[in-house]
Amino acid sequence: MTASYAPHRMDPSGGCPHAANAALLAKGAAAEVLLPGDVPAAVVLGHEALKEFIGHPDVAKNARHFTALREGRIPDGWPLRTFATVQGMVTSDGDDHRRLRALVSKAFTARRVEALRPGIERLTDELLDGVEAAAAEAAGGAGDGTGDGVVDLRALFALPLPMRVISELLGVDEEFRDRLHVLSNQVVATDIAPEDAVAANREMVAVLTAVAASRKDRPGEDLTSALIAAREEGGDRLGEAELIGTMIVMIIAGHETTLNLITNAVRALCAHRDQLELIRAGGADWADAVEETLRWDSPVSFFPFRYPTRDLTVDGTLIPAGTPVLAGFSAAGRDPAAHGPDADRFDITRRTRSTTRHLSLGHGAHYCLGAPLARMETTIALRRLFGRFPDLRVAVPEEELPRHRSFVGNSVRELPVVLGG
């Protein structure tokens, strides 16, 4: 790779990405970076460049194109290895990708997603009952729970909502859910020790193998049962590694992204009360807040990996064939070239004034299958949360919120709030 400046070293501990993104964008739409372990890589972070790169015919997802991995230079404990080696839609191309996507997409048709709405609304209200009770207990058991008791909204609400929804879709029994969330966090962590990364991946495979075995013994109307049936009926249509790999991707993407999206949207609206009042006055709706959060504070910051199958030059940066490339979604969302000079301002009316759409849920053949579900869950969550607790506020300054220990996910690990009233 060629550049006029030293490669940017990706911070394994994560943190807020926006200042570093702005500095990188000021130099160009793509950049050389160093991943943990000093693995040379690149990031594409300009909106138009990323959109073109994602859809480029000479850019692949299959890790057989990852030169360093193919040559044995990536150790088992490398924190990003799972993103390259898991077998499923996110690491496949062409016919394999179409085959796997077709199997999974049946669970995410518009009609099936819409059929989930009543259950998601009931679950949301149930979780908010729990939040209110926890706030009352935190306040000393007095009043109706809308006093000064501080509760972690992320743990009590933003996490269990998407986790329960995706678990029920996949047929994951309740006994496995908490552990799968912990393991998901470890799998996406970029500052994890090698031995912990290996252990987390092994346990994730073991837990999901147990889930698959349970569904094989007691098939239901869930997606895992359908995938097992497709494998058995079609012979080689879905191998064991593909089944478990697909489940890993679905569990992680199915709750981590929405968890971050809900968390980031609540933070944004609490910090921009004028935007919250605009929704209440009918000048915008909750869906507008969801889309602006996706753009302004993407739940996924840098998503691994894509690989050019030949040398490509992106905005003056040469990316040699076989280089692992990160998709810089959080940077593209605030690219002034695409979203205007006020790209770093949270404005829920933006999508009604602009034809430029964010890329935070992907683009092209690998566009997120679960996007309609994530949007529905988050819209319902925000409407009911702020409808029930209109004076909800974050209990500590933004800079005191502990950030994700990863440059993949983009959010905070806790969201202490006061319900108000």
Automatic annotation (TrEMBL):
Q: Which residues cross the membrane?
A: none
A single Gene Ontology molecular function, please? iron ion binding
Keyword tRNA processing (UniProt): no
Keyword Hydrolase listed: no
Q: Which UniProt keywords apply?
A: Heme, Iron, Metal-binding, Monooxygenase, Oxidoreductase
Q: Matching Pfam families, A to Z?
A: p450 (PF00067)
The cross-references to SUPFAM superfamilies, in alphabetical order and at most eight, read: Cytochrome P450
Question: CDD domains of this UniProt entry?
Answer: CYP107-like
Q: Which InterPro entries match?
A: Cyt_P450, Cyt_P450_B, Cyt_P450_sf
Family from the record: Belongs to the cytochrome P450 family.
Q: What is this protein called?
A: Cytochrome P450
Q: Which organism is it from?
A: Streptomyces scopuliridis RB72
State the organism's lineage.
Answer: Bacteria, Bacillati, Actinomycetota, Actinomycetes, Kitasatosporales
